[in-house]
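FIELD: query
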Amino acid sequence: MRRAHAVRAAFASVLTALALQAQAQPADWPDPTAMTFPPIQFQAPTPQKAVLSNGITVYLAEDHSLPLVQGVAYVEAPGVYDPPDKVGLASFTAQLLRDGGAGGQRPDAIDEQLAYLGASVEASSSDTYASVSFSSLASNIDQVLPLWQDVLTRPDFAQDRIEVERQRQLEAIRRVVDNPVQLAVSEFSYRVAEGHPSGAYPTADTINAIQRSDLVAFHDAYYAPASTVVAITGDFDAQQMLATLDATLGAWRHPLAPSPQVPAFNEHPAPKVYFVQKDVQQSIILVGQPAVRAYTPAYNAFTVADQILGAGGFTSRLFTDIRTKRGLAYSTGSQITQGFDYPGIFLAYAFTRSDATGQVLQLILDEIGRLRDQGVTPAELSQAREQIVNQAVFRDTSVAATTERTARVQLLGLEPGYFETYLQTVQSITPAEVQAAARQVLNPDGLIIMVVGNADAFDEPLSDFGQVVTIPLQ
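FIELD: result
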């Protein structure tokens, strides 16, 4: 009783305080519910572009809001350069840039220096590029930059750290089998892009095949000034930073090897139903096919179609029909990945209970067909365009984000200002253009289906949806 009384007394105190605040509010203050404001006009900062004496393009942007400096070097050393028998080499190389020691220093010595300086240096790789980044207090930048440069240009690839990384990657591969979603995505990507390295994934055999000489050769071939673009932002004087970079990173001289011959991307893989038997209580359903290259007219229009189909979250057709109305999936939607030298991939998905697998799969196929054949309504189009434009603000959450995106634009060979142009295009797209893009991308007779689940509990056999190929677990 005392507790209930205390809670009621606390609520009463809050309400009394609010009442007093309301009484104290000046009579000439406007009604907040009736206030209107002009549209927010955000102007992304324009970084300064410069070229070092060795040809590296650098984008610099001063930001004195905090005494910090951060930067990143993007290198055209992507995962699609992996040899077929050594898939994972690009990622392995990037990880060992930092973890394998650099500039003649052991990894633990670099760790101690960075910890003392309150700084970080990291490296990673994707299908599109590798990146080596740093973050530092402005007062320590002269000590951090040489460490960052050594990691980028002079990695040591210590043999003991190679074996540590090998075991880490082998364990990650083993765990994929335990994760139905990861398993489905890996196998789906491989089947949609089969024969192209963008869909390949590392296995125990490919990781065990990688030796130190492979890491050295990969770095020697593709990490060079001609393949590197740098973005640096923070609390510094741009001209002074440029002079420092030119005297240090600008002294890096290394020839770039020709890019390896990458197999052509098959844009029309044979439609099949791929299945992985796994004793679980839910099914992971993926449906899709190759799409289009990023930031082409068809891509611009199809991103709007995708937003309406499933990428728009709670308001999308898939979510509204499968989850909200029918309660058949706790997660459903769609997406399109970006491909620049090859097409991206369109993917619709749902995670549902086993005894609703066939029903949900059919609902996904129906929605894909409806989008293609019936198009979209003006109301759906208006909402999708608004969502895309509103989401765009998160691409410019900081000066660093804008500067780094500008650097990536150059590395990927896109036209300057391509993203702003994309947003302008999206706002003027018509329903007819959206449907035309959907018809171009979505081929009901060419869809690839991937299901991970327990076939004994399915409501109907997968063979009802096409030729079934069972993928055995490794």
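FIELD: remark
The two ends are 62 Å apart (CA to CA).
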